[in-house]
Specification:
By secondary structure, this protein is α/β, with parallel strands linked by helices. 43% of the residues lie in helices and 17% in strands. An eight-stranded parallel sheet has the order 1-2-3-4-5-6-7-8. Helix 9 crosses helix 10. The structure holds nickel (II) ion. Nickel (II) ion (NI) binds next to loops.
Length: 256
């Protein structure tokens, strides 16, 4: 059994067939966590989770969607649902913003902090998205988690940093998640090699980032096995061992 710890069957790309895709994954032993990117998609993730055993939800606000206000009480109520296992996806993304545009950065930081506070209040882990912002993200994470070994800190999803940054996150109790990117890019081989398997999660981030050999098709949770295969290969482990350990990691972190 594998767990796709970051899927988006709640997005438009799966509008016509989300339930079929979920059934196909479950029948093949793949459970999943669907992550919200705003309020509507968070609500949709909860609806899907309520329909299927083995399907869970994360509720949150993606940094690229931070034009809306983050309504703390409304998200809190949604997050209290028993199938909600994390707050996210949330984080910082400076990739698309103009260099030096401090107002957008500050707004992202403010909304991220509110979600950290919600996660801490509800004792749920965070699913963090970070692109070209690891310096600021580490600073914020440190201010909350440096001396807090809660055991439910969270995960850096679709990890885009270097080995040193991965180690800093791990020291503060965070897991590191990889997806299909590692099947077509060698950029993270060293981080994967040097990160203990106990600190690694697997995910698809579907419908995006389809792994080899399915490039060009829409991604789906079933393909998470390709990520496990590549991690096994890099670390010289068996696929079985890699699957079992990453599933155990996800179960412990998300309490499922
Ligand atoms: Ni995502």
């Amino acid at each position: 059994m594998l767990i796709d710890t970051h899927a988006h069957l709640n997005l438009e790309a799966f509008k016509g067939d989300a339930e079929e895709v979920i059934k196909r994954a479950l029948q093949n032993g793949v459970q999943m966590i669907n992550a919200g990117v705003d309020f509507e998609t968070s609500k949709k993730a909860v609806e899907l989770a309520e329909k299927f055993p083995g399907v869970y939800a994360a509720v949150g606000f993606h940094p690229n969607d931070s034009k809306e206000e983050f309504d703390y009480p409304v998200f809190k109520e949604l997050a209290l649902n028993s199938k909600v296992v994390a707050i996210g996806e949330t984080g910082l993304d400076y990739y698309r913003i103009e260099k030096g545009d401090l107002s957008v950065k500050n707004r992202q930081k403010e909304i991220f902090k509110k979600q950290i506070e919600l996660a801490l209040e509800l004792k749920k882990p965070l699913i963090i998205h970070c692109r070209e912002a690891h310096g600021d993200l580490l600073e914020i994470i440190k201010s909350y988690f440096l001396n807090l070994k809660s055991g439910f800190n969270g995960v850096l999803h679709s990890f885009s940093g270097n080995l040193e940054q991965a180690e800093k996150y791990r020291e503060m109790g965070f897991k590191i998640a990889f997806n299909g990117i590692i099947t077509f890019s060698r950029d993270y081989d060293e981080v994967i090699l040097k990160t203990p398997i106990e600190d690694i999660l697997i995910e698809t981030d579907c419908p995006f980032l389809t792994p080899i050999p399915y490039r060009g098709k829409r991604n789906e949770p079933l393909y998470v096995i390709e990520v496990a295969k590549r991690i096994a290969e890099i670390k010289g482990l068996s696929l079985e061992e890699t699957g079992e350990q990453t599933t155990k990691n996800a179960r412990e972190l998300f309490g499922i």
